[in-house]
Amino acid sequence: MLKTAIIGCGRIAQKKHSEAIIRNSNIIENIAVCDLLRERALEFADKMEKADLKKPEIYEDYKQLLKRKDIDAVVIATESGNHYEITMEALNNNKHVLVEKPMALSTKHMNEMIEVAENKDLKLGVCFQNRFNPPIQELRKKIESNAFGRILHGQASIRWNRNRDYYKQAQWRGTWKYDGGTLMNQCTHDIDLLLWNMGSEIDEIYGVIRNFTHPYIQAEDFGGAIIKFKNGSVGIIEGSATIYPKNLEETLSIFGEKGTVVIGGLAVNKIKHWRFEGEDAHPYQNLPDPDTVYGNGHVPLYRDFYNAILENNQPYINGQEGKKAVEAVFGIYKSAKEGLPVKFPIDFSTLEMEN
Ligand SMILES: NC(=O)c1ccc[n+]([C@@H]2O[C@H](COP(=O)([O-])OP(=O)(O)OC[C@H]3O[C@@H](n4cnc5c(N)ncnc54)[C@H](O)[C@@H]3O)[C@@H](O)[C@H]2O)c1
Question: Average pLDDT, whole number, for the chain?
């Protein structure tokens, strides 16, 4: 059994990490939970107990929790702006780390996390759970068997809605220091899928951001971008938290010389178009939408993280992979700030958007 602990018991932890722990209870035992707000840690622990699992020990100070020698790995689900600090402390206490997306909010921090994990021979995994969505896995098989031929262009469209209540629930949301805007928070999943499947490095990015309808947050509620990839292909990003009156869709489109795939639904969970020679449909065209936009990927993601530790492999989404979508969003921010296209690689932090 892998012995884990969870740090940060807010919205995503209560909804999805609890489910992942319960459904992987044959391989994972979550022995401790921590939140600055004790009642949240208790609520999480109660969920474990109700599922007939041993009640984890409650902590309010994650540094105390990290002193425990019997914890193999920690899961970090606090606000994005403190992922770096908590990850570093965990790695320095010899814990493997599974961190929520975005893994950190500066290039330097992400590089340091990756480097320290590597040097200490510890696993660093990132929660881009949509990579495990069944339609995305189907697409992946086509990418890996070169069924598209040359990939020409692709698009990530995130047309969602986040209202005042969502931002009021937690003060950190929409701030440059702890979050970023909709591109960094909601859209990094689809941006990750776009970059992963386009399969080429970013050469240059041109981005525009706006705050259309959320004057009470610092960062953007809309972002658009054009990416020129090194191999000549082109990516388009459209990310919005302003769609009237509620979440509409999250779609990934990949267009190649010999293939077309569009995966949509509420959260890239349903094949919309599937065209290859001799194939013009796919059974996953009729999959139901998940209960939330977070989908069901945390369960296989935990299993993969467990296997990576057990077999001493890299997690499916390791630090290097987790970094790419964040860097793309940095590129959009920098470009929007300067009003110019930005050449990669870049060194950036969301704090640069504060002035
Ligand atoms: N993978 C996904 O689909 C997905 C979905 C939603 C959120 N997220 C990410 O998960 C993270 C958390 O988001 P959320 O919406 O659950 O936030 P939240 O505000 O609901 O929860 C964060 C929790 O962390 C706790 N916390 C903060 N600092 C702490 C510390 N030092 N020690 C212990 N606890 C601490 C807070 O008290 C709070 O309960 C963010 O990085 C977000 O981007 C990922």
Answer: 97
Q: Quick one: pLDDT at residue 288? A: 86
104 C-alpha to ligand 1 centroid (Å): 13
Amino acid identity at 33:
V
SS3 state of residue 345: coil
Q: Pick the residue whose CA is nearest to atom 37 on ligand 1.
A: 36
User: How far is the C-alpha of 159 from the C-alpha of 170, rounded, in Å?
Assistant: 22
Unique residue bearing structure tokens 């990839």: 229
Centroid of ligand 1 to alpha carbon of 10 (angstroms): 5
Q: What is the pTM of this model?
A: 0.98
Q: How confident is the model at residue 1 (pLDDT cuts 50, 70, 90)?
A: very high
| Pair 123, 183 in one domain | no
- Cβ(266)–Cβ(249) under 8 Å? yes
**pLDDT, tens digit, for every residue of 144-155?**
999 999 999 999
Domain count, the chain: 2
The mean pLDDT of 197-217, rounded to a whole number, is: 98
Check whether residue 21 and residue 146 sit in a common domain: no
Q: Are residues 142 and 95 in the same domain?
A: no
Compute, in angstroms, the gap from residue 342 CA to the centroid of ligand 1.
30
Domain that holds residue 58: 2-129+297-318
